[in-house]
Amino acid sequence: MGTDPERRDELGAAVRGCAAGDRSALRLIYERESRSMLGVAKRVLHRQALAEEAVQDTFVRVWQHAASFDSTRGSARTWLYAILRNRALNILRSERKTDLVDDFEPMALESGEERADAMVERLSEAGRLRRCLEGLDPIRRRAVLLAYAGGLTHGELAGRLGVPLGTMKSWMRRSLILLRRCMA
């Protein structure tokens, strides 16, 4: 698919178009590569939602950093897939870093559908984690609990709570910062 020199030149031109702010150039890249990129991301991440997140994040990075593309160092396609690979690996690493605190273990969760409030209730009354969680906005507290106790990803949380993926990522980031400050 990407071995044809004319097609490679077209992708390179599209990346340069992105650097100049041409949205149609990004659309061209998306139409040409998104399906293949999704396949690659699924092979790395093994989950559709995470693969879609990686591809979306890749296109955001392509748009933001297209000016850094240097055709003397490789083809545009190689550059695109390097960004995708790095993003997918970062997602894998972040998925493994779910050890905010050890206080979640005593909750003995029975199901992923359990109400977040019930999870908080089972924490020790005097526990610092409980006090810190109760300081969060209820919907954000629920998101944090579903992520850490239920194992849901950002994409799954966004779908379950009916908010855009970017919003969920922001909520989680801000909530975890507040929890870390509170726990410190």
From TrEMBL:
InterPro entries (alphabetical): RNA_pol_sigma-70-like (IPR039425), RNA_pol_sigma-70_dom (IPR014284), RNA_pol_sigma70_r2 (IPR007627), RNA_pol_sigma70_r4_t2 (IPR013249), RNA_pol_sigma_r2 (IPR013325), RNA_pol_sigma_r3/r4-like (IPR013324), WH-like_DNA-bd_sf (IPR036388)
One Pfam family cited in the UniProt record for this chain: Sigma70_r4_2
Domain RNA polymerase sigma factor 70 region 4 type: 128-176
One GO BP annotation of this record: DNA-templated transcription initiation
Keywords: Sigma factor, Transcription, Transcription regulation
GO molecular function terms attached to this record: DNA binding; sigma factor activity
Ranges of residues in domain RNA polymerase sigma-70 region: 29-97
Family: Belongs to the sigma-70 factor family. ECF subfamily.
Name the record gives this protein: RNA polymerase sigma-70 factor (ECF subfamily)
